[in-house]
Prior knowledge:
38% of the residues lie in helices and 26% in strands. It is α/β, with parallel strands linked by helices. Helix 2 crosses helix 4 (175-200).
Amino acid sequence: MIASALKPGFIRLICIFFFTAILGGCGFHLKNGSGIPNELRNLTLVSSKYSDLTRLIKQELRYNQINLVVPAVTSTTSDEYLTTKTDDSSDIVGEDSTQTKTTAMDPALLNSQTPILRIMSESTGSRTVSLYSDATAAEYELSYVIKMEVRLPNQEPQYFTVALQRDQLNNSQEALARSRESELLQRELREAAAQQVVRTLSQVIIEPQTIGDNDDKTELSEAELNIELNTELHTELETN
């Protein structure tokens, strides 16, 4: 009788477990469940203006109810000069390669009172992980690495790295299909990295009394000074 009473609850627990696992595998995440500090609910994003990664990060930020703040100051440096690209790809098709896109910090934003999220660099790479008997590449590892910086007023910058990898089999007989698969894997890595960038914001350390409380500090100092002066005056009166 006890076993029959527990059976429905046990079955329900199993169903909930599988349902959660399926949602997690699909990349589903609860809205407002990211644990991002309230101090980061307003952000200025510094990244390559027209890149796919920037578009995906903005999409994730808005999904997590983070307001994108346009800088109040006007930059004198164009995005063309802030973003640079380096390509270490080999001239031989199929060889290991690395491509990096770097975004510099705009000097006009160094004194910003709004928290800043800067995508410092975006790197894609490919390396051989296994070979066929004829010494040609049998399998590649595609890598996608993002280095990011978070700046808050009156705090030292905090740096984070997001690194993802995917494996790809090499079929020399189907070069076009392999190229298409590589593009799809890169897109998948970019989407996953954008989500990870936003989740990483929950790791930012917020030091006490750093955002929007400079006036409070000033008022507190003035109050302490008045108390000290009143105490000295009272002591002098008692002495006289």
